[in-house]
Amino acid sequence: MKTQELVAVIKSLKSDATKLKALNRLLDDQYVALINRDTDLLSTINEQAMALIESVKTSQAARDRLFNEWFDGPSNTVVSEFINMLPKELRQIASPLTNEIRAFNKLCKAKNQRNGLLLSSQNELLKSVIGGNATNSYPDQLVKF
What we know:
The protein is mainly alpha-helical. It is built from four helices and no strands.
């Protein structure tokens, strides 16, 4: 395990924390756009959100590959193992970052679910107004984290 790899992982964690913070704000904006039925703004927000999600997924996959090379344990323990093996000064940076990522991930999941419920209720309202068996024009599952 090289020092530059450790630093790259920590930079990746910082970047993901920043992206998840931005995604959190976008999900709030998405909720407002859904309420206002602002399809143009919603389209822009969705594109931005998907770009952030894909970027976080890509960096997470890269970290997972490195962790798989470094550790043999189950994937749910490797982050803890990684943090514990770091020198103190790096541990003091990485530990809060992983906690921040977990917190924003949880918050983004909750906001995504809230937005999905709003979208679903709007769809149900349209079905009741229009009648018939209108089909969904959006995926049953929105964004997975």
